């Protein structure tokens, strides 16, 4: 039952927002009493913490699945961006990350620390792969580019209220990031991916 509550709460939080979803809403959606939810979670904050941890794991499992398909480094980034777009396509217009930061800053900080750690590993692996493939320049300072990119992406998500606007800016950031690192061969692959993937 605990897992079912987390799963339903996660869906509702992502679709409707962390602030607007109440314990009553979750109970109503599941046809259970609010008392049942409180048996497992002493308050909404605890449920949000568990839900964000679950979503974090789901996201990184999906990223691992995409990485395992062994696309080239540039296509891999576009496939991951598409995965995020699909994941949030049913939500309200307000970005879930923006809401989390605004209304639950402590939980947001925990999520952010975990995300930066995992994203740093992923971005680094992607850049190293791109250099091996000849899509990215050999002379890159990998640490600097990793930091540039996650600073850009997290800034977009935590300061952009509209989810649609955030996604549009993320695509621009991905293009900017890729062009900054790309060889001529990489630019050709980037142009190919830009034709394929839209907002």
From TrEMBL:
Matching InterPro entries: Homeodomain-like_sf (IPR009057), HTH-type_Tx_Regulator (IPR050624), HTH_TetR (IPR001647), Tet_transcr_reg_TetR-rel_C_sf (IPR036271)
- The residues covered by the HTH tetR-type domain are 1-59
What keywords are assigned to this protein? DNA-binding
Q: Which PROSITE patterns match?
A: HTH_TETR_2
- The record's DNA-binding region positions are 22-41
Domain of life per record: Bacteria
Tell me if DNA-binding is a UniProt keyword of this record: yes
Its name, as the record gives it, is: TetR/AcrR family transcriptional regulator
Q: Which organism was this protein described from?
A: Flavobacterium calami
């Amino acid at each position: 039952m605990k897992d079912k509550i987390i799963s339903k709460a996660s869906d509702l939080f992502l679709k409707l927002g962390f602030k607007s979803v109440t314990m009553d809403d979750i109970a109503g959606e599941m046809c259970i009493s609010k008392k049942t939810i409180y048996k497992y979670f002493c308050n909404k904050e605890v449920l949000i913490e568990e839900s964000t941890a679950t979503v974090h794991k789901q996201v990184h499992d999906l990223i691992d699945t995409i990485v395992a398909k062994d696309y080239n480094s540039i296509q891999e980034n576009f496939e991951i961006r598409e995965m995020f777009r699909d994941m949030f396509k049913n939500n309200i217009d307000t970005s879930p990350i923006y809401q989390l930061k605004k209304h639950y800053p402590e939980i947001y900080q925990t999520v952010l620390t975990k995300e930066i750690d995992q994203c740093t590993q992923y971005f680094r692996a992607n850049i190293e792969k791109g250099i091996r493939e000849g899509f990215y320049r050999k002379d890159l300072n990998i640490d600097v580019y990793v930091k540039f990119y996650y600073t850009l992406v997290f800034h977009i998500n935590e300061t952009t209220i509209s989810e649609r606007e955030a996604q549009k800016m993320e695509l621009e950031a991905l293009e900017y990031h890729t062009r900054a690192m790309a060889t001529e061969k990489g630019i050709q692959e980037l142009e190919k991916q830009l034709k394929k993937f839209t907002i």
